[in-house]
Amino acid sequence: MRSHVRTIVVLAAALTLIALFLYNVNLWGVLGAIRRARPEWLALSLATAFVSLAIRALRWKFLLEPLGQTSFANAFRATAVGFAASAVLPARAGEVIRPYFLARQAPIDQQGRMTATGAFATIILERLLDIVTVLGLLASFVFVFGKDLASVNPTGFALLKWAGLTAAIVATTALAVLFVLAGDPERLGRAMARLAQILPSKLAGLVAAVAEKFARGLGAIRRPSRLLAALAWSLPLWLCIALGIWSMAMAFRFAIPFTGSFLMIALLTLGVAVPTPGAVGGFHEAFRVGATTFYGAPEEAAVGAAIVLHLFSIGPSLLLGLVFAAQEGLNLGTMRRLADQAEHTA
Length: 346
What we know:
Blueprint: H1 2-22, H2 27-35, H3 39-64, H4 72-88, H5 94-105, E1 108-109, E2 112-113, H6 116-145, H7 154-183, H8 185-193, H9 201-216, H10 224-251, H11 260-271, H12 282-295, H13 299-327, H14 332-345
Antiparallel strand pairs: 1-2
């Protein structure tokens, strides 16, 4: 019942955002803008979607090394399956499916098969690295590249600066906490073991075991050099994503500089925070608002570009992910049950 209620709420949010996105929009004008888009720039934007998926897999492979060796092919397949699941299932189901899918096919090391719980910890780390990188790009735009934009929308620009500063503090604090935990994974396990004084011993022991495995998954940042290397992987990833956004703007003839895509990335990050399947609605509205408010893009062209960019963003991973999942005997129903099971056991 609880999962059904969550699904209804998520779908209602998606429909509300889509209605807001399409409100008072000339759909024939949108179709015309899409038909007039320049194909060479569309091709470049689509290509960046494949490249960014590969870079994500390479970064994840690096983060997984302390847990055991895995191949790029396995990391790529699991990454595609995870993103495909998030594109069609609510509540970011792919975030928990990805490590479990990897654990099914990862090679066995000396201590046994790579645990999904440990791998899931690297997903958390990935998101924090993404936040830090996006905030860095946003800061470079706000304080270096986009100063002239403050005269276009002073109020919005000021709010964006304060939001970025607040998020930067939160992300930096979270990374510091994770760094401490990774330095002594057993510390978290010992702390959770003390729950035996409050909770039934079996339940406390289970929590302690899961917490220790989770902390071990943070081994990728146990040394500052590995943390810097992980951040280094994140920069080309987000620059590739920025290139895809900028290429889409060029295809629809927006007057957006390449560094302007740093602002668009930050807005899209806020838009996809609503956990709708495939970020439907939030992604579209965030792109439309950014393109029209800060860069004066025509409404129909902004809506058309948002639709095409969203299709390019989820299309490659959705196609590849469903193929890879089918090869493992998984369908959408199975992935949904796997996500529910993972949420209760991770």
